[in-house]
Amino acid sequence: MLRRPKPTDSEADLLREQEQFLTSGAPSAANVVRRPDKRRGEAGGEGGEHKGEDEGRQRDVVTIEDLPDQLPSLTPAPAKKSRFKASRVTFEDEDAEARLDTHDTHVSAVLSRIVERDTSSTPVSLPALTGLAFPKVLHRSETSSQVPLSSAGGKKSIFARQIAAQRVKEGKTPLHCAPEAVHTPETSMDTDQCCAADDPSGPRLVSGQGLEGPGSSGETIRIHRENQAKLQAMSKSEILDEQNKLLTQLDPRLVEFVRSRKAQSVPSSASPSKHLQVKSSKANFPLENASRESDSSSADALLQKPQEVEMEAEEEEGPPPPAVTEKDLPIKPQKEWVHMNKLEPEKLEWLRDLPAPRRKGTKKAMQARFDFAGTLIPPTEDLPTHLGLHHHGEEPERAGYSLQELFLLSRSQLIQQRTLALSTLANILSKARAGEYVSALTGSIVSTLLDAGLLFLLRFALDDSVEGAMSAAVHALKALLVSAGDEECLDSTFSWFRGLASFPLLPSVQEEEDEEDEGLPENMRFTPKEKEERKSDHDVARQDVVKGLLKMKLLPRLRYILEVVRPSPRVVQDILEILTRIARHSSSSATQVLDCPRLMETVLSAFLPPSWTMPSLPLPQSVYGLPLASTMKLLRVLATSGRHACARLLNSFGVRERLSSLLSAEPSELLLESTEALRITTEAYRLWAVAAGYGQACKLYIDLYPSLAKALQSVHRVLAPSDPLSPLQIQRVLALLCLLTQVTHTAGCHQELQAGMVSSQGEECPPPPPVSWGHVTGLQAPLLGHLKGFVKSLDNPEQKESSLAVIPAYLAYLEAYYHQLSRQNCFKPLETLQELELLTSEVLLPLMSHHVVQGLMKNLKSSSVVCNVQSSHLGLETTPSLPGLACPVLRDRPGLVVPSSPFPLLTGLGLLLETITSIHKGLSCKFTGLLLSEPVTGYLQSCSQATPTLSHTRAWLLRHEHHLLYLLLRLAHRLVPTEPQVAKHASMYHQLALVLLPWLLPGSEYLAHELLSTIIFSKDFISEGHSGGPEAVELGELKLQEEKQEHTTPSLQTVGALLREACVQLPSIRGCFLTHLAHLEPSVLMSRDALLGRNPLINSHLLPELTGPTLPSDWPFLPLVSLYERSGVSDGGGLAVEELPGGALQAVTHCLQWLLLLEVWREEALKVMPPVAKLARLSCVFLCSSDLFLERRVQKLTWGLFRLLTRRSRLDSLDLNFPPPGLASFQDLYSALLNQYEAVSFGDPLFGCWVLLPLQRRYSATMKLAVFGEHVGMLRSLGVTNGQLSIPIERFTSPPEDSLPLLRLYFRSLVTRTLKPCWCPVLYVVALSHVNSFIFSQDAAAQEVEAARRSMLRKIYYLTDEVLRNHLLLFRLPQQHLEFGFDTYDQLPPIRAKRLESVLRLRDSGDDKGD
Question: Are the CB atoms for 1103 and 642 separated by under 8 Å?
Answer without folding.
Answer: no
